Amino acid sequence: MPEALRIVDLDEYDPTGDEILSWREFMTAPDQLRWDYDPSWASEQVSDEDEIASFRQWRLERRGSNHPLWALADGVVAGMIGINRGQGARAHCGELGIGVRMELTRRGIGRLLLVSALAKARRLGLRRLEADCFADNAASVALLRSCGFAEEGLRPAAICRDGQLRDIRLFGLLL
């Protein structure tokens, strides 16, 4: 794990412009883009100033429903996790999305982010968290199980990645 790693809660932390640009670089890395259903947004050519302003506007619009946490290492986004709060009858639920820079995987960053997100979900008053991962992603399956998530099902051929249909495992945790 990077020495100067810290977890910041974007509901409380105002990232610097350089940190926002680091997040953008992380999110547009090839391994991350493969997750996005429409990666065309990443090819847009915008100035750094416009990117920073766009991010700040995005955060304002999503406050209360989206709760991101970043792992920062020397001003660089090493990983992130987001809690997307459900609406209406699902307002007690949160859906997790997590990512760690490819070159920093298997160093405990994902676990630190997930544990931090569990604490945040409890502070938000959520009663249930949901997560999913590729069925053959042993590291993600092990991480979710080790933090108390139970496997709740399988969605066969739920994602097409690199031209191949992939199964998704579904997990849930009652808080």
Feature tags:
alpha+beta, 175 residues, 5 helices, globular
Structure description:
The protein is an alpha+beta fold and 175 residues long. 31% of the residues lie in helices and 35% in strands. The protein has five helices and seven strands; from the N terminus they run E-H-H-H-E-E-E-H-E-H-E-E. The protein has helices spanning 17-27, 30-33, 48-62, 109-124, 138-146, and strands at residues 5-9, 66-73, 76-85, 93-100, 128-134, 150-161, 164-174. The protein has a seven-stranded mixed sheet, with helices on both faces. A hairpin with a 2-residue loop joins strand 2 and strand 3. Helix 1 (17-27) packs across helix 3. The longest helix is centred in the middle third of the chain and has 16 residues, at 109-124. The model has no long low-confidence stretch (mean pLDDT 90).
Shape: globular
Q: Major sheet, described briefly?
A: 7 strands, mixed
| Helical residues, percent | 25-40%
Low-confidence stretches: none
Average of the residue pLDDT scores? 90
Helix and strand succession? EHHHEEEHEHEE
Strand ordering within the main sheet? 1-2-3-4-5-7-6
Total strand segments: 7
How many helical elements?
5
Strand content: 25-35%
Q: Alpha-carbon distance between the termini?
A: 28 Å
Radius of gyration: 16 Å
The SS-based structural class is alpha+beta
Describe the structure in brief.
The protein has 175 residues and is α+β, with helices and mostly antiparallel strands.
